Amino acid sequence: MAKKRILSGMRPTGPLHLGNLHGALANWNKMQEEYECFFFIADWHALTSDYESTGSIQAYSMDVFLDWLSVGLSPEKCTLFVQSHIKEHAELFLLLSMITPLPWLERNPTYKEQIAELKNKDLSTFGFLGYPVLQAADIIMYKANGVPVGIDQAPHVELTREIARRFNHFYGDIFPIPETILTETPKILGLDRRKMSKSYGNAIFLSDPPKEVRNKVGQMITDPQRARRTDPGNPDVCNVFSFHQMYSDQETTQRANDECRKAEIGCVECKKMMAEFLITVLEPIHEKRAYYEANPDTLRAVIEDGDLRAGAVARETMAEVREAVKI
Length: 327
Ligand code: TRP
Ligand code: SF4
Hints:
This protein is mainly α. It contains 14 helices and five strands. Strand 4, helix 9 (154-171) and strand 5 form a beta-alpha-beta unit.
């Protein structure tokens, strides 16, 4: 049996952080071993909300691509590409827009949420309303069977399923109906104990150099009840301790656990120990990134190769689609 085909994308909104590493990236890394995977940079989607200032989209796209390679997504195992390089997405988006009823888009929960949340941006555009239609085009272009996404994106995959069914109903059975594969994301908290997020300014980025990691770990909020060095602390409620559990060796984690409760270790020292382990975990990631940064031609070749493979599939699909639509 042919391998199941998996597709997912990320908007290039900035460098990726530890939350992304343990969520989407860990998941994609596993999936590339088992499935035929397509992962792409959704740069057109970034335009839907950032159309006024597009200056960073290209640089962010490269950043995210580098992050992908540095954490182990392999161009040999999966197809990594850039959405805007495959113009067929725009054509399929247009055709799907003809058959997508407006109310489906207007009642999309993420649409309503975003409009309410991002008050400083004018999102009452055609493009923003059509965001899920473009996403549907991305997905069905590759006849994906599964789409790994976080819970926030589940409504978009649901809409994709409805749009694909409608297309098949009008024009013939061309597209498989893709399944949502919910990514389980261990909740990684940021420096301030809120969910780690670029927009909160509380993230540790995969590309942060050791000095920056030490500095950020130094700012992490610990057990809020522990006011003085002489107070015993409670690792169970301390985010630094959660990081120990993820990154430090067992001995160090045990030590932090015991000594914190007896006030035998201060938070400054405890953080320093953890930071060094985190830096060690990031080291191989930085090495890979440095390799591609030093060899921009190799990076360019990787992207071109991914575009080529994605483009071949997209052209095939569009030939079928045009014939079915009779246009
Ligand atoms: N909307 C997704 C996000 O913001 C990105 C995306 C665009 C996507 N097209 C996709 C994800 C297709 C999965 C499949 O995260
Ligand atoms: Fe957290 Fe370590 Fe401080 Fe205890 S000693 S509160 S585990 S940072």
